[in-house]
Specification:
Order of helices and strands: HHEEHHHHHHHHHHHHHHHH
Shape: globular
Largest sheet: 2 strands, antiparallel
Strand content: under 5%
Helix content: 55-70%
Number of strands: 2
Number of domains: 1
Distance between the termini: 65 Å
Radius of gyration: 22 Å
Length: 458
């Protein structure tokens, strides 16, 4: 039976990548409307349950690592179609290596050096495979974005996704009686971070005076949906990030001029935020009562595990995607002892069988340091710096254009997400990872436009 399932999976994967993608490319050749429909569909599809657009080969469901097998993301099939359409049209703006891609590939390559210390070398290639295939998304989306209308198609897809998501969350909270709703996500934290990640650029479009009234209402409602969803997740850090991001966006928009729309949106958003938080005050008060001191915060103990791993393997780490093995019994007794000692200090009785599958550190950066060492972490930071710089520089360059506030929103969302990565590792998870890569590709395209403008002016 297992072999039959495997054959079916392989057949689906081959069909998507080698038939579906190329067929889409031929259909989208010269068809701007169809290309924009698929750009919007790609953004919307990301909010669906992961099983709708991913398929895993060699899946190890019992493993607590951040990659459980060799994952295929069907959005990459659409991206192949985008790239092929540009090639067939012989477009001069098609780039096999868009700005930022070489650094992304360099990070993956140096992270593979961690295989020398890995408990399970095969596990190292699982995230490498996943992140390498994100290159399809970078190249494809870069090729599909040819102007302002293409970026707006993506943002409309995200806006609709936010509205759908808040409906799902409201159903889970008030009809099903959930406390910390997850919607169509695996966990509430990646959902709340995804909300502000796409919410900030959408808010920028709502504030832009060039945005049509119809689109302004769509974006404003979607931004409100993002805020309400964050509140429903009862994530304190995400709510703080969302509030700070919204304030930065609003204040920044006033630098581009005071308009009735911006003032009205600011007042309406503030009143709405107060009302929503008041409704959810009981759940937040319950969360505020939780003890987050180091003596009782699991994240503190897990970060100490990471520090011990880094101290032993500072150059290349203990192996990409091997954290879940290295911090648990029976193969990671040394680092499991760090967690066991923390539990013992809290007065808990230690039973070895309870430490066979310990959780991963919540910090993205401590995870990278532990698994990939200083060299992998360094190249990842370079990509973080580069994408942040693309967002900031092109915000200034396109400030007086209809897309200025959009790029500003992407820059704000990237910076907040990178900062939030200290306590959340969601950029390793497929939905947030793919959304992040799409936003990075948008500012990569803006960077390419800026460079072309500079060339023409010389």
């Amino acid at each position: 039976m297992e072999i039959v399932v495997l054959i079916i999976k392989v057949a689906i994967i081959l069909t998507v990548y080698f038939v579906g993608g190329p067929v889409l490319g031929f259909l989208m050749k010269g068809n701007d409307l169809l290309r924009r429909l698929f750009l919007g569909f790609t953004a919307w599809w990301l909010v669906r349950p992961p099983s709708d657009f991913t398929l895993m080969l060699y899946s190890i469901e019992t493993y607590r690592g951040h990659a459980k097998g060799f994952e295929f993301n069907f959005i990459e099939g659409i991206a192949i179609g985008f790239a092929l359409a540009a090639i067939l049209e012989k477009r001069h703006d098609f780039k096999l290596f868009p700005p930022g891609l070489i650094l992304w590939l360099s990070w993956i390559m140096v992270s593979l050096f961690s295989v020398v210390n890995a408990i399970e070398p095969l596990y190292v290639f699982m995230p490498a495979f996943k992140f390498l295939k994100m290159s399809f998304v970078i190249v494809g989306v870069f090729a599909a974005i040819r102007g302002e209308k293409d970026i707006l198609a993506i943002m409309r897809g995200f806006a609709i996704a936010l509205i759908v998501q808040v409906i799902i969350c409201l159903w889970g909270r008030y009809i099903q009686g959930g406390f910390r709703v997850t919607g169509w996500f695996e966990h509430q934290n990646p959902m709340s971070m995804w909300c502000y990640m796409v919410g900030m650029p959408i808010f920028g479009l709502a504030l832009a005076k060039e945005t049509s009234k119809k689109d302004m209402w769509l974006y404003f409602i979607a931004f409100g949906a993002a805020g309400l969803t964050v509140v429903l997740t009862v994530s304190r850090a995400s709510l703080a990030a969302f509030g700070a991001g919204a304030a930065i966006m609003l204040m920044g928009s006033f630098l581009n001029g005071f308009t009735f729309r911006r003032i009205a949106i600011g007042v309406a958003g503030g009143l709405g935020g107060v009302f929503v938080i008041a409704m959810a005050a009981d759940t937040f008060m319950a969360r505020m009562g939780e003890d987050d001191t180091p003596e009782n915060d699991l994240r503190f103990a897990l970060n100490n595990q990471s520090k011990a791993m880094l101290a032993d393997h500072p150059v290349a780490g203990i192996g990409w995607n091997n954290y879940g093995l290295a911090n648990s019994r029976p193969r990671g007794n040394k680092y499991s002892a760090v967690l066991e000692k923390w539990e013992e200090n809290r007065g808990r009785r230690i039973r070895p069988e309870q430490f066979m599958a310990n959780p991963l550190t919540e910090s993205l950066y401590w995870l990278l340091l532990a698994e990939n060492g200083y060299i992998g972490f360094f190249f990842f930071l370079l990509f973080v710096i580069q994408t942040s710089w693309f967002g900031i520089r092109n915000t200034f360059y396109f400030w007086k254009t209809p897309l200025g506030l959009l790029f500003y929103g992407i820059a704000v969302s990237l910076l907040i997400t990178y900062f939030h990565g200290q306590v959340e590792r969601v950029l390793t998870q497929t939905k947030n990872l793919t959304t992040w890569i799409i936003l990075c590709t948008i500012v990569s395209k803006a960077e390419w436009w800026r460079r072309q403008d500079k060339k023409r002016l010389k």
